[in-house]
Amino acid sequence: MKETRIKINLEEIYAKYRPIISFKVKKSLGASNPDWEDTVNEIITNVIEKIKKGEFRGESSIGTFIYTITSRRIIDYIRQKTKVLKYAPEPTPYPDPHEHIENKERAELVARAIRKLKPKDGEILYLYYYKELSREEVAKKFGITLRRLSERVNYSQKLLKKFITYSSLRSSSHSSAFTFSSNSPAFLNKLTMPQ
Q1: Domain housing 186
Q2: Within a domain: residue 13?
Q3: pLDDT of residue 174
Q4: Predicted TM-score (pTM) of this structure
Q5: 154 or 183: which carries more pLDDT confidence?
Q6: b vs e for 72-105, b when ≥16 Cβ sit within 10 Å of the residue's Cβ?
Q7: Is 193 exposed, middle or buried (0-12, 13-18, 19+ CB in 10 A)?
């Protein structure tokens, strides 16, 4: 007899509180969210299970009990979706044709500037910046000390800056500032290739 009473009460609870739970979930998650109905069903199932297990002790009203479960489930859902979104990749924006042209011109300018360096210095910059080898690895490959490698990298950077600045000034008068060298490192061809 007691089980029949619980079943009747559960049916009454379902009929009375399902619309209220649905309203709260739709309001919190958005009516356009396809998961709102699943969340409502999870909440109702959770409420029924807790009542059957005797976790509702009658210290508060059944409405308060259901409201607490509903609020916690909504918060859990939002946290779960936030974690998923935090690690989801950002959609790539459409490429800007002007930006692509500027990047290509900048790469060509840097390639021309690097070709003006001594081949060994160009190779050092290639290994250190493009291949991302550590300074220790590059120094070991060339058989020089770390201090000497740092000096060469810094000196090459200053020369590049000078070449690029000079080229920028000269390009405004429509003349080329650099000549191509046949002894340039092979990696420079990658910089000037259209992507």
Answers
A1: 98-192
A2: yes
A3: 47
A4: 0.41
A5: 154
A6: ebbeebeeeeeeeeeeeeeeeeeeeeeeeeeeee
A7: exposed
